[in-house]
Amino acid sequence: MTRYFTIRQFTPDDVEEVASLFTKIFAERAVTSKAIGASHDEYHREASKKVCESSAKEQLSFVCVDESLPKAQQIIGFRMCKTFKIEPTNFSESKVAIISNFMNDMAKKWLCEHPEITENEAMQRKVVFFQGLGVKTGYEGLNIATKLCLATLKNAKSLGYQYAVTVTAAEASQHLFANKLSFKEYYSVDFDDYELNGEKPFYGVKKPKSIKCYEFDLNLLN
């Protein structure tokens, strides 16, 4: 049976549905989440819901919809984004704070490598940051993630953004950005090497062995 999907812009009305899907995907699949032992409730409260709420404030994110499914279950993929911004260090005792601080540290490294952007707030507002990407179980292998990313990139370029930046710890996403979307790998950090407060929270993660930061010059987009 042929299935028809629609790619459309993410709206504030989608926050709850996407946050639930985000939680299920990342709490069950992400190597970082597994390594720290974050519960579904904690991940939902401290990560996915906050990401979706921040993404809803801008017209930068997209979802993939299967209208043959019941209401409130039709979103089968998402690409959450926001304008690039270094967030304050999260001093919460939540396990998920470890992940958010790791991602923020990676974003800081990228910014430090671009002094022309570091010293120019107007330029920083022209960088779109990819916050989360996921596809519902059973819908893998249909190029949904690729289509979501392309829709996001084209939209960001039309809005005047110049760069897209993403930090990813998933093998599938790293393959997508490097091989399908031609993102440039800017640097990587082995999970075994990352330290936070004198500890190595991701030590022993081997697949993938590292978290990677990628960038894409939107001027190269056709």
UniProtKB/TrEMBL annotation:
<dbReference type="InterPro" id="IPR016181">
    <property type="entry name" value="Acyl_CoA_acyltransferase"/>
</dbReference>
<protein>
    <recommendedName>
        <fullName>N-acetyltransferase domain-containing protein</fullName>
    </recommendedName>
</protein>
<dbReference type="GO" id="GO:0008080">
    <property type="term" value="F:N-acetyltransferase activity"/>
</dbReference>
